Amino acid sequence: MNLPKPLRHRLEYLGFRAAQAAATALPLETVSRTSGAAWRLIAPRLYRQERALGNLKLALPELSDAEREEIARGMWENLGRTFGESFHLEEIVAQKRIRFESAERLEDMIRTGPSVMCGLHLGNWELVAYTSKLMGARFTGVYQRLSNPLVDEETRKMRAFLYEGGLLPKTPVSARALMKTAKSGGYPAFLADLRDDNGAAVPFFGKPALSTVFPALLARKTGLPLYAGAAFREPNVRFVIRVEPVAIPRTDDHAADAIAGTAALHAQFEAFIRQAPEQWMWAHRKWV
């Protein structure tokens, strides 16, 4: 039965608020463990499992089918844990469950000043922005709107405290706002590993993958340094953030420099993923 969109959105919102109430009523570690176990059990039976295994075979052909299936199960568990933890982000920060590796890298970033930060959907990716708190910086983030505006607003509120420079929906207007932020000494922040049909095909696990060039172009045009960051999951709902600088050529061809920078960014993303392949989101459509 096709419900009218306003009614469907309202019912989805009520379901989301029920999940939120259940998650916030339970201890953080219980929510993370239970949600992870449920996703690990149920999600491999759903249609996206086939895509995840196909992507794993394309990217990691040297592994056996059994090894790839185990990575996929770990991926679903990580996604389930991340979903449950999304209702407890402020608690994770307040309880100091996140460490940054290393102190020297953090000091370098503070000393360098404004920059462009790019995360990927690995571990608990929302926590990459915690770097801003450690730096004393105001990250301005970008997010993909959900189709349900009621749920979208609630999820935006849950992570907005990590982005003191604002959390903007992904639109052409936001792109102009981020360019202004970068030129005025701000800290634009992105999740930059998803497919972008309007992007450039750059190597990723040895295969071309359509990827957004905007973060690298932004860094190239403004002269800001570009960083890749990941929040790796550790036992007992703890996390370690690792950040690496990404080199961008500086020639007379800004567009070519941005594509080269995007390729370098994805090379670093690949390096992060190889450290913990079960923590990356293999089920999305990435490759050409």
What order do the helices and strands follow? Answer: HHHHHEHEHEHEHEEEHEEH
What is the residue-mean pLDDT, rounded to a whole number? 95
| Largest beta sheet: strand ordering | 1-9-8-2-5-3-4
How many beta-strand segments?
9
Helical content, roughly? 40-55%
Strand percentage lies at 15-25%
Radius of gyration: 19 Å
State the end-to-end distance: 35 Å
Low-confidence stretches: none
Question: What is the count of distinct domains?
Answer: 1
Count the helices. How many? 11
What's the story with the biggest beta sheet? 7 strands, mixed
Structural class: alpha/beta
Shape descriptor: globular
Provide a quick synopsis of the model.
With 288 residues, the chain is an alpha/beta fold. It is 50% helix and 20% strand.
List keywords for this structure.
50% helix, two-stranded antiparallel ribbon, 11 helices, alpha/beta, seven-stranded mixed β-sheet, 288 residues
Description:
The chain has one domain. The longest helix is centred in the last third of the chain and has 22 residues, at 254-275. It has helices spanning 5-25, 28-42, 48-59, 65-85, 89-94, 103-112, 131-135, 149-159, 172-183, 214-222, 254-275, and strands spanning 98-101, 116-123, 139-143, 167-169, 187-191, 195-204, 207-211, 226-234, 238-246. The radius of gyration is 19 Å and the shape is globular. With 288 residues, it is of the alpha/beta class. The strands form two sheets. A seven-stranded mixed beta sheet has the order 1-9-8-2-5-3-4, sandwiched between helices. A two-stranded antiparallel sheet has the order 6-7. It contains eleven helices and nine strands. Helix 2 (28-42) packs antiparallel against helix 4 (65-85), helix 3 (48-59) packs across helix 4 (65-85) and helix 9 (172-183) packs parallel to helix 10. Helices cover 50% and strands 20% of the residues. The model has no long low-confidence stretch (mean pLDDT 95).
